[in-house]
Amino acid sequence: MSRHPELLVPASSLEVLKTAVIFGADAVYIGGEAFGLRAKAKNFSLEEMEEGIAFAHDHDVKVYVTANILAHNDDLGGVREYFKELKEIKPDALIIADPGVFEIAKEICPEIERHISTQANNTNYGTYNFWYKQGASRVVSARELSLQEIKELRGNIPEDLEIETFIHGAMCISYSGRCLLSSYFTGRDANRGACTHPCRWKYAVVEETRPGEYMPVYENERGTYIFNSKDLCMIGHIPELIDAGIDSLKIEGRMKTALYVATVARTYRRAIDDYQKDPELYRKNMPWYLDQISNCTYRQFTTGFFFGKPDENTQIYDSNTYNKEYTYLGIVGGVKDGLCRIEQRNKFSVGETIEIMKPGGENVEAEVKRILNEDGGEQESAPHSKQVLYVELSEPADVYDILRRGESEKNF
Asked: What angle do CA 85, 38, 189 make, to 5 degrees?
């Protein structure tokens, strides 16, 4: 059976959801204000969720809502009420890890598909078949699986049970993302949505009988960031992903900006479409994909576990800084009389050359001619974040285009 893989993109807010939809997502996954594993993300109120689902459905894009906490007794009543609310706004699926939460979803909103989160450690076809019998329509594979294992898995499960797999973004250091460090250090439980990312911190070792003596943790003299992983990136391996029988190619990043989401969604959209049109076209356009995918904030890249267990080259030892090439300025919210309405996100000035990033793949250089505030007053620069501005550019821009500025210093 030839599969046309879905491109599944994260969204942290209504603005980012709309960006994901316009820049090429087939489906978007979002979190509500409760029971998801990104409590620090902005997340969606029910009203925003309803608006986002309507917007996505108008563009033939699906929306999945995460409810993937590992629940305690006192969570279950709230989950029940939450699912009653979700029943009314009709997302396309719920992403669930906990069997108790799964049972509540089956009871309250059986008409909404149930997907099994990576948090449930889905590492074999027996697990997939178990969840299928319970009524799941999709299972998210553990990040620890190789492509060969996924292929074997595909051959041992029903055709209509879908496989979803992370193909781009941050790799948690703990098994399927279930980390105890955050809870231990800060009292914020990663398994209940409050991860503080202590894997990004710098560590030293203290010997019990020598308090106060801090010995840096070196790994072959390459540095002290022993918990850091490179970011997953499979843009160069679309054929292998499709060949393995994966139904949904998932981007990580429910705490990322609209610029990041637009860049990654647009690049993978083009790569998947090119490959399915003509494998030769995909190979020919590889330099463009690789260039574009580096145009957002990212760590160094890895192919994770897909081609076997990672070795020492898969982890970052020399640095925990992000590479960054572009600064996000805003999204065009409307165009009238040659002026683009934006909500400013980073400072820029009249006379600067910026870039208009378009959903179709074009990046158009433009000069900032004028900046006006909401009262029509002229401004030389835009220093205040979230200020609504009207910007005249030397080149035309359309609604949902993203404005960004290239930075001359590239940290490689």
From this structure: 110
